Automatic annotation (TrEMBL):
<keyword id="KW-0285">Flavoprotein</keyword>
<dbReference type="GO" id="GO:0016491">
    <property type="term" value="F:oxidoreductase activity"/>
</dbReference>
<keyword id="KW-0444">Lipid biosynthesis</keyword>
<dbReference type="Pfam" id="PF00724">
    <property type="entry name" value="Oxidored_FMN"/>
</dbReference>
<keyword id="KW-0560">Oxidoreductase</keyword>
<dbReference type="GO" id="GO:0009695">
    <property type="term" value="P:jasmonic acid biosynthetic process"/>
</dbReference>
<dbReference type="InterPro" id="IPR001155">
    <property type="entry name" value="OxRdtase_FMN_N"/>
</dbReference>
<comment type="similarity">
    <text>Belongs to the NADH:flavin oxidoreductase/NADH oxidase family.</text>
</comment>
<protein>
    <recommendedName>
        <fullName>NADH:flavin oxidoreductase/NADH oxidase N-terminal domain-containing protein</fullName>
    </recommendedName>
</protein>
<dbReference type="InterPro" id="IPR045247">
    <property type="entry name" value="Oye-like"/>
</dbReference>
<dbReference type="GO" id="GO:0031408">
    <property type="term" value="P:oxylipin biosynthetic process"/>
</dbReference>
<keyword id="KW-0925">Oxylipin biosynthesis</keyword>
<dbReference type="InterPro" id="IPR013785">
    <property type="entry name" value="Aldolase_TIM"/>
</dbReference>
<keyword id="KW-0275">Fatty acid biosynthesis</keyword>
<dbReference type="GO" id="GO:0010181">
    <property type="term" value="F:FMN binding"/>
</dbReference>
<keyword id="KW-0443">Lipid metabolism</keyword>
<keyword id="KW-0276">Fatty acid metabolism</keyword>
Length: 368
């Protein structure tokens, strides 16, 4: 099959960026940034997965000291962190890649150990996340958060703005604001968590106010044509869900349209397997139809489903997580319909700088 006949490998223009294909590296926490700093092994990881005019989104990167909640996660609030990211960005750009940085704040998804001076994690609420049983059977526990005062929220917005400025200084092509998966911004957005009675709580407009202030702050720093947003209206991660996810998603999309946001990356509801084969729910079409910019889907896609989604107009781009992790040359493998390396879930978050990180093999083209 020729590459031009493969929908995932057709060119696409995303604002100012002329992409050569539609296979996106999804933002994936990898837990290898010791002391919150990306090192040479991080530069190698992303450069391995970079392709000429292909879009990569870096892992969730903290905007401040209070944003942290996971081991060895990167940050971008200090000059030292900016300098460390420069070598990573340069490595991707040398391969011709387009590189965005996902910026986040975990909010209440943290513990005293990760917070400055052992203080309580901050959130829109003082409700604690229930202990979470992970896929490996271990239990993850979180500390009781402290409800942010209304007069403290502008500082968090400023933290995101500084992070956006630092991303530009590090050389990133843009930022993706993490408004998904039960972290701070989504904690404000969803009514299972947000129990505020001030201008940041109650109705949907108030609950989305913080998210839109953060998005506007990033726009002020770098322009709307360099800002993407990730949403997961249907997810219930970290005890964070909404009673009307469709209305919430459409409200945010309408607001983002008015702001001229470059792209919206949205996560499918939980995928299921039937006879060993992943079944994509395809529940995002109404969001895709309403969004004026580039639409990116993620969640359980393989080559076949990705091609189908693009060819049928369900999405513009498809983000791949586990498969891109295990196959640094994923677009080439899709082009040749070559076998994929299997991913090893047990090494997703190990701190090793090589194992489960940069040691996945490239395709041996001589054998194809």
């Amino acid at each position: 099959m020729e590459a031009k006949a493969i929908p995932l490998l057709t060119p696409y223009t995303m604002g100012r960026f002329d992409l050569s294909h539609r296979v996106v590296h999804a933002p994936l926490t990898r837990s290898r940034c010791y002391n919150n700093l990306p090192g040479e092994h991080v530069a190698l990881y992303y450069s391995q997965r970079a392709s000429k005019a292909g879009l990569l989104i870096a892992e969730a990167t903290g905007v401040s000291q209070t944003a942290q909640g996971y081991p060895n996660a990167p940050g971008i609030w200090t000059k030292e962190q900016v300098e460390a990211w420069k070598q990573v960005v340069d490595a991707v750009h040398r391969k011709g890649g387009v590189f965005f940085c996902q910026i986040w704040h975990v909010g209440r998804a943290s513990t005293y150990d990760y917070q400055p001076n052992g203080q309580a994690p901050v959130s829109c609420t003082d409700k604690q996340i229930m202990p979470q049983v992970l896929k490996d059977g271990t239990v993850e526990e979180f500390s009781t958060p402290r409800r942010l005062r209304e007069d403290e929220i502008p500082q968090i917005v400023s933290d995101f703005q500084l992070a956006a400025r630092n991303c530009m200084e590090a050389g990133f092509d843009g930022v993706e604001i993490h408004c998904a998966f039960g972290y701070l911004i989504e904690q404000f957005m969803k009514d299972s968590v947000n129990d505020r009675t001030d201008k940041y709580g109650g109705n949907m407009e108030n609950r989305c106010r913080f998210a839109l202030e953060v998005i506007q702050a990033a726009i002020n720093e770098m322009g709307a044509d360099r800002v993407g947003v990730r949403l997961s209206p249907y997810s219930n991660c970290l005890d964070c869900w909404d009673s009307d996810p469709d209305a919430l998603g459409l409200y945010m999309i309408d607001a983002m349209n008015k702001l001229g946001i470059l792209y919206c990356s949205m996560v499918e509801p939980e995928v299921i397997k039937v006879d060993g084969k992943v079944q994509i729910p395809y529940k995002l079409l109404h969001f895709r139809k309403d969004f004026a910019g580039t639409f990116i889907v993620a969640g359980g896609y393989n080559r076949e489903e990705g091609n189908k989604a693009v060819s049928e107009g369900y999405t513009d781009l498809v983000a791949y997580g586990k498969w891109f992790l295990a196959n640094p040359d994923l677009p080439k493998r899709f082009e040749l319909n070559a076998p994929l390396n299997k991913y090893d879930r047990s090494t997703f978050y190990t701190p090793d700088p090589v194992v489960g990180y940069t040691d996945y093999p490239f395709l041996d083209l001589s054998s194809v």
